[in-house]
Amino acid sequence: MKNTDTLKEGIAYLEKLKGVDPSKSKLGAEVLYNFICLGIESVLTAVLMENGKVVDHSGIGNLIRELKNVEEVDPMWVDTARYMNRFNSYCSMEPIAAKIPNNDELKQFIVFGLSVLEYGQAKL
Fold first, then answer.
1. Among 16-20, 23-27, 53-57, 84-88, whose mean pLDDT is lowest?
2. Angstrom distance (rounded) from CA 75 to CA 44
3. How far apart are CA 37 and CA 20, in angstroms?
4. Which of the four CATH numbers 3.40.50.11690, 3.40.50.1220, 3.30.450.20, 1.20.120.330 does domain 5-123 have?
5. Is 81 within 8 Å of 58 (Cβ atoms)?
6. Closest by Cα among 113, 60, 49 to 90
7. What does the pLDDT look like over 67-112, one tens digit per residue?
8. What spatial distance separates the first Cα and last Cα of the chain, rounded to whole Å?
9. Where are the domains of the chain?
10. What is the per-residue pLDDT across 45-56, written as a single tens digit (0 to 9) for each?
11. Rg (Cα) of the chain, in Å, rounded?
């Protein structure tokens, strides 16, 4: 795979997750959640682009659905992506307050992010 800027950016975000303890992080839960999402989305987008796929949606679940058309995907990724979608807030005008992940949920998302990091590094 080519060393794309998008892939490198995703890897850089996800590298920062190593050793992060959400209960001790200076970043708030929402920032940490978005940080994880940005890294995962960047890595998956780069892989899809390399495979000639035009990415229509940036949501992790959508990216994984597209990736399944290219290669086998870890079932844990699918389950975790679905769970993470509960915390997405796509519009500030939504009448429902955004859900904020707790420390245990963030730890689960970090494990997922580190799994995607390993995957992305293997693509370099």
1. 53-57
2. 15
3. 15
4. 1.20.120.330
5. no
6. 60
7. 999 999 999 999 999 999 888 766 666 667 778 999 999 999 999 9
8. 6
9. 5-123
10. 999 999 998 877
11. 14
Residue 8 token pair? 């490198």
Task: Read off the amino acid at residue 11.
Answer: I
Look at the chain and count its residues. 124
Alpha carbons 30 and 19: distance in angstroms, whole number: 18
Helix (H, G, I), strand (E, B) or coil at 123: helix
User: What's the pLDDT score for residue 93?
Assistant: 64
Give the rounded percent of residues in the chain with a pLDDT score beyond 90. 77
pLDDT in tens, 28-45: 999 999 999 999 999 999
Which long-range contacts link 89-95 to residues 24+ away (Cβ below 8 Å)? Answer: none
Query: Tokens for 90?
Result: 């796509």
User: Residue 98 carries which side chain, given as an amino acid letter?
Assistant: A
